[in-house]
């Protein structure tokens, strides 16, 4: 499906079947991967009746199935619009396209740079990319064993769902191997965002520093220094970093250079943002075979 920009596609009941993919994903898989129950709970709790569903090109094939599953979970009462060919890069919430169909909220699917919205609330569904926890766990511990530095685990947002399982597996393997590793994990900054026009920066639960509207990267060293300074805030005895939808803390006695960064995710703009921002850090990468 390719629509002119900005555009939205509404699925009235009479047209739903004709827009179904030839081989639609299993509905149970759709419900889990696209977090249908959690999304419906968010929309019901705020009584939204006109909702824009924003998909990047690579996920657009699942849009009809997601819209059907979400409508079924909501039980009617809300009109859902699928947006394609967004006004900006797909990592940003397309408020322009959403305003054209008078949406009250945008549900954003896939990778996001988490740039703050101005007028509309947003709900983020990052997806659940498969990850081999066992292989990743052993690779992570190998990196920790071979390095004298503490390890900070960062990830693409589509792998954030696997971090709790990875933590548990790593702790169990450390105990069985009698290995004492210092491993820290970043967390997802938020999955809901309020518009900046109606809330304070803290209430937005968003990070506007460290990334641009197109996941842009610093053009020179001065820009890079500004980027690093802006994505870090000192809070008491810790420095809090917000970058690419992730947040983590380090002691004020330490620098990011003191850490080995372990990246779980694809070699994409999100990884480039991390690598160029912290370009003095050692970075460990799992094998591509860890990803489904």
TrEMBL record:
InterPro entries for this protein: DPH1/DPH2, DPH1/DPH2_1
A Pfam cross-reference name: Diphthamide_syn
Annotated GO MF terms: 2-(3-amino-3-carboxypropyl)histidine synthase activity
GO terms for biological process, alphabetical: protein histidyl modification to diphthamide
Superkingdom of the organism of origin: Eukaryota
Gene3D superfamilies noted in UniProt: Diphthamide synthesis DPH1/DPH2 domain 1
NCBIfam families linked to this entry: diphth2_R (TIGR00322)
UniProt-listed PANTHER family: 2-(3-AMINO-3-CARBOXYPROPYL)HISTIDINE SYNTHASE SUBUNIT 2, DIPHTHAMIDE BIOSYNTHESIS PROTEIN
UniProt-recorded name of the protein: Diphthamide biosynthesis protein 2
Organism whose genome encodes this protein: Aegilops tauschii subsp. strangulata (Goatgrass)
